[in-house]
Amino acid sequence: MTAIVEATGLTKRFGRVHAVEDATFSLDEGGIHGLLGRNGAGKTTMMQLLTGQEFATEGEARIFGESPVENAHALRRVCFIKESQVYPDGFKGKHVLRSAPWFFDRWDAAFAERLVRAFNAPLDRPMKKMSRGQRSAIGVIVGLASRAELTFLDEPYAGLDAVARQRFYDLLLEDYTAHPRTVVLSTHLIDEAANLLQRVLVIDDGRIVIDADADELRATATTLVGRAADVEAYAVGREVLDRTTLGGIASITVAGLSAEERRAAASAGLEASPVSLQGLVVSRTGGVEHDDATKNKEKSA
Ligand SMILES: Nc1ncnc2c1ncn2[C@@H]1O[C@H](COP(=O)(O)OP(=O)(O)OP(=O)(O)O)[C@@H](O)[C@H]1O
């Protein structure tokens, strides 16, 4: 496998703010990967460093084996969609889509048209007058239809409602399957996107605190559900990574259990259920935004 993204000791400081600190990781070509972390953790700065939009204070960023800084050749193969995208004055949705093929060699106009219908994007409206969700939809359309070999999506659907977000996940997976490429997605809605992600990078206070295959990460912990009293009794003396109590029912996430420990938990009246990726990330970063509805749904599944 060839590394398509590499960071070596990558550091970005804004005065006394350590936005990205000594980050070293690499991503192989192909796959949908998550860059997760709390507000202000350094996700946007990391993507800006990897796309040459910020200069590193120390260390090195490489894409396609080259520095991205002022590297038009490498950046032609990259699409970076961010929520705070600034458009020229008077630009309408249709102007964004018309100019996209200038920047993206693999732009698929027919797919873009399908996405416009899927997200009900108002192409005749000036970008400045669009709602937050409509602007997000335009970003998502460009991000998907660009088919760029390396696509960075920085909370691209922050303004989209739940139905539109689900449509985005479905379309991303469908199009990725037909046209494999490398996608790096930053999001707070970890459980929603969890099933898409192959690799997970978690950044906390500028530092990479988790760099793992998503399935391997899930296998490092187990969620146990049962009567609150039984759960609490079981938890005594164990490291609990995440804890939820709802009425008389409680769940805890504990570090990987052996088969014997699982049997002991079962005979203590506790049921093992799939671990929430979000729960794991929360436990390592001290509290990423929680989507309790999604979390409860996943835990009861
Ligand atoms: N141009 C800048 N000048 C000073 N500080 C900055 C600048 N850009 C980012 N920062 C700071 O660097 C840190 C990381 O910011 P960044 O935008 O990368 O975080 P983020 O993880 O994308 O956050 P969010 O999820 O809230 O968008 C924050 O503390 C932020 O205030």
From TrEMBL:
The keyword ATP-binding applies. Keywords: ATP-binding, Nucleotide-binding. The keyword Nucleotide-binding applies. InterPro entries: AAA+_ATPase (IPR003593), ABC_transporter-like_ATP-bd (IPR003439), P-loop_NTPase (IPR027417). GO terms for molecular function: ATP binding. PROSITE patterns: ABC_TRANSPORTER_2 (PS50893). Coiled coil: none annotated. Gene3D superfamilies: P-loop containing nucleotide triphosphate hydrolases. Residues 5-230 form the ABC transporter domain. This is ABC transporter ATP-binding protein. It comes from Demequina muriae.
